[in-house]
Amino acid sequence: MDFLLEHSPPLIVAIPLFASFLTPVISRISSRARDGIALASISFSTFLSFLLAQDVYKNGIKVYTFGASVPSLTRPAEIPVRIIFEVDGLSVFMVIISLVIALLAVIYSTAFTRKEREGADRYYTLLLLMVVGMVGMEMTGDMFNFFVFLEITSIASTALIAFWIVRAESLEASFKYIIISSVGALFVLLAIAFLYGEYDLLNIGALADAMRYTFIDKVALVLLLSALAMKSGIAPMHMWLPDAYGEAPPSVTFALIAATQASFYGIIRVCYTLYSSMFNHVVIGSLLIALALVSIIVGVTMSIVQSSLTRSIAYIGVAEIGYMLLAIGTGLIVKTENYGIVALKGGIFHIFNDALDLGLLFLCAGAVILSTGERSFDRLGGLARNMKYTSILFLIGLLAVSGMPPMNGFASKLLIYESTYRLNPILAIVAILGSILILAVLAKIFYSVFLGPELPHLKDAKEAPTAMLVAMFLVAGIIIFFSLFPGYVIDKLVVPAVDAMKDPTAYINAIMGGG
Amino acid sequence: MGFPETIHTGSGFWAPIFWIIAFIVAILISYVIRGFGRKDYKRGTEQVKPFLAGNIEERKEALHIRGDHAYWGFKEALRGFYEKSKKFHSGDTRDYILWFIIILVISFVLAEVV
């Protein structure tokens, strides 16, 4: 167990990476064995992530230096030149989200790939590579590594969005996604090149330690924030998101939410660690808040006018990212105030809630599409008769996403409302109005898809396959647990992440003082 | 100190247990009120049919309000906003990149780069 714990950071990435290349080979022998390998690899990585989390919460930041005689040795040559994974409370929180979502996506996929046999072998390779990319982004302590993992995530996601290759819309969404991803990644690389040119460093901790906030640093900050904001789907750079989320297979969309959040993690890491106390917090915080408000307003208003089930939910996803950004921006402006900490707790908690709640809606939408072959509201209705479980699960997701008490979405949004109200009441008013509109949109979706009379062409619609239901019930189970015990989740998972954000010196010292 | 599930917001707290208790009480009150309702209601009889001023009821599927028609009034009231919003969501990738450049420029100005 000690060996597993010591090498857990690279193993969490290496196991799905190995499995990703093993699955197409095994697929030629048995599709069940292929599914089993995918499931086992993600399950084991998830287990390791919880083991790692326990260690990080107990003993502080975990550093893993590749190629060093002792993995915790960060400075064999006085400067941290080696590839280093650095896992603090925030990293491990994000890793847990990514892997839990990936595990549930794989369970759901086992039913999906049974229906969609064409390309199923490559599907798992790409899905596991996507997981490798996002988990790598969240654990690496190196800027260039971050870029590499960002690219891995983008390329795997692009191919997965185009999974239904016969659909022109899927290909178009995939094409748009790769353009947006390439432009975003290019600007991230440019920023890294600027920082490397100035400091001869790539390690995040070492860069944060050396940061002087020169003209070049300001340019790099703007490039990093803008590119990562686009990759996170923040309005008005969100337009790729409804295309991609709306056209990808539902299990992929579920994982894509976690991938998008990995880019959002990048924004947090840049603001709170790399540049920590350097920039004008009020200006950058206000910029983030302005983008958050635009995201909430654009997300909810555009969701109302969509005629596609998945696109409508995807626009709600844009609004949900707005809530997280609103909290992060508020936390930046009022770093020292108590309500700044409350905002951060709300924002960080909402990352997990968003992944689960929105994910559940997409999984239910996937079950509806699989059962009926329809995406348009105009062709759907009365499905609660044939899809009882899916309709109940959708209702749970609906209540959670719209922040209805006593759901988990309410708990995190309450923290966001109260803290933003202290900063400026208008922020809280927009946020609450946004939630009301989300409820209105989702009530419309629920009514038009599940309620009403039975439609003649949907008489033969069947309930989702067992594996899909299992995945959806597991997501709903976690949602209900988070709803009933929000204090427990905040204490155990959210507070260590917020503490890591508040104290960037710990992250820096783990590298610079660890030699 | 509080219940393990309680969260503190700085100016108040949230404990789902209290909400659940209130919800159960509300359900019980509703059930009691329901008990005062009419006892002569019979399912599957003429009683349950809607009265549409003597007109014949349309087929059930024809009465279903499709998703696209929901919130028609809201969309109509905000028609000007939606016309602009739809134009802004052109689906053209060049526009996507244009918005990225606009945000980049605004950020450069705010960060005092230019």
Write the layout of secondary structure elements.
The complex is a heterodimer of chains A (515) and B (114).
Chain A: H1 2-6, H2 8-27, H3 31-59, E1 62-65, E2 84-87, H4 89-115, H5 120-139, H6 143-161, H7 168-199, H8 204-210, H9 215-232, H10 240-247, H11 250-274, H12 281-304, H13 309-333, H14 338-372, H15 388-401, H16 408-423, H17 425-450, H18 466-484, H19 486-502, H20 504-512
Antiparallel strand pairs in A: 1-2
Helix pairs in contact in A: 2-3, 2-5, 3-4, 4-5, 4-11, 4-14, 4-18, 4-19, 5-6, 5-11, 6-7, 6-11, 7-9, 7-10, 8-20, 9-11, 10-11, 10-13, 11-14, 12-13, 12-17, 13-14, 13-16, 13-17, 14-15, 14-16, 14-18, 14-19, 15-17, 15-18, 16-17, 16-18
Chain B: E1 7-8, E2 13-14, H1 16-35, H2 60-63, H3 72-77, H4 79-88, H5 93-110
Antiparallel strand pairs in B: 1-2
Question: What is the structure about, briefly put?
Answer:
Chain A is mainly alpha-helical. Chain A is built from 20 helices and two strands. In chain A, strands 1-2 form a two-stranded antiparallel sheet.
Summarize the structure in words.
The complex is a heterodimer of chains A (515) and B (114). Chain A is mostly helical and 515 residues long. Helices cover 77% and strands 2% of the residues of chain A. Chain A has one domain. Chain A has a two-stranded antiparallel sheet with strand order 1-2. In chain A, helix 5 (120-139) packs antiparallel against helix 6. The longest helix of chain A has 35 residues, at 338-372. With 114 residues, chain B is mainly alpha-helical. Chain B contains 5 helices and 2 strands. Chain B has helices at residues 16-35, 60-63, 72-77, 79-88, 93-110; strands at residues 7-8, 13-14. A two-stranded antiparallel ribbon of chain B has the order 1-2. The mean pLDDT of chain B is 85. The chains are: A mainly alpha (515), B mainly alpha (114). At the A-B interface, helix 7, helix 9, helix 12, helix 14 and helix 16 of A face helix 1, helix 2, helix 4 and helix 5 of B.
